[in-house]
Amino acid sequence: MTVAIIDYGSGNLRSVAKAFERAVAEAGLTMDVVVTDQADVVRAADRIVLPGVGAFGDCRKGLDAVPGMVEAMTEAVFTRGRPFLGICVGMQLLADRGLEHGSHPGLGWIPGDVVPLAPADATLKIPHMGWNELEFDTGAHALLAGIEPGDHAYFVHSYHFAVADPADRLATVDYGGPITAVVARGTVAGTQFHPEKSQATGLRLITNFLRWTP
Q1: Going by DSSP bridges, is the β-strand pair 188-191/178-185 parallel, antiparallel, or unpaired?
Q2: Active-site hit among 104, 141, 157, 194
Q3: In the annotation, is 194 catalytic?
Q4: Which of 4, 18, 74, 95 is most buried, most CB within 10 Å of its CB?
């Protein structure tokens, strides 16, 4: 089985790949983790990961610039039913649009907009940076197995995913109000936090994703 981590010039690929390789090894799974900018590799992969660091519009432009990549992702997820995980801006790109420095189209895989953080407490700094306690919105979900409310995850962002349907939001954190932390719909999921930097919580979520059979 192959886990494809998409290289489109907008992600901390080395640390993401190392975290996935560690999860594979510690869970005793038989999977190859590959970092790729080749659409055909992504189309044939068993699991797909889209990292993302930077501005929403720049990340979307970078993804669109890789020949055939959006089409390959779409085919793998919606025709072949392959599990997909977006990380940080990679998760935000699942939305209908991002409102960072203008309005930019997202993939439209999970309805909603990516909007600026606006904490009710004016003393809270933006970007939101650091460790926060996860709070669960829904009942049991395979991606959250072994993760408890109050477990910490690591965030660095100034915008968040305001989902149109609350059922698509699995977890939040409190930063002057609820901020989307984990989303999922069908075979598509995403985390606003960086699982590769979130120690035990992040490793658990990655392992759950590798075992996920939605």
Answers
A1: antiparallel
A2: 194
A3: yes
A4: 95
Residue length, the chain?
Answer: 214
pTM (predicted TM-score): 0.96
Contact 26, 66 (CB under 8 A): no
Q: Could you report how far apart the first and last alpha carbons of the chain are, in Å?
A: 16
Looking at domain 2-211, does it have CATH number 3.30.70.120? no
Catalytic residue among 59, 88, 104, 128: 88
Q: Given this model, what pLDDT does residue 23 score?
A: 96
Question: What are 68-107's pLDDT values in tens digits?
Answer: 999 999 999 999 999 999 999 999 999 999 999 999 999 9
Reply yes or no on whether the pLDDT at 12 is more than 90: no
What local confidence, expressed as pLDDT, does residue 140 receive?
78
Catalytic site residue 21?
no
- Is 128 marked active-site? no
Catalytic choice (100, 104, 128, 196):
196
Please, is 4 exposed, middle or buried when counting C-beta atoms within 10 Å of its C-beta (0-12, 13-18, 19+)?
buried
Considering only residues 10 and 204, tell me which one the structure prediction assigns the higher pLDDT. Answer: 204
Per-residue pLDDT of 128-150, as tens digits, reads 999 999 999 876 799 999 999 99
Q: In 3-state terms, what secondary structure has residue 41? A: helix
d(CA 32, CA 43): 15
What residues have CB less than 8 Å from 100, skipping those under 6 apart? 55, 56, 57, 114, 116, 158, 159
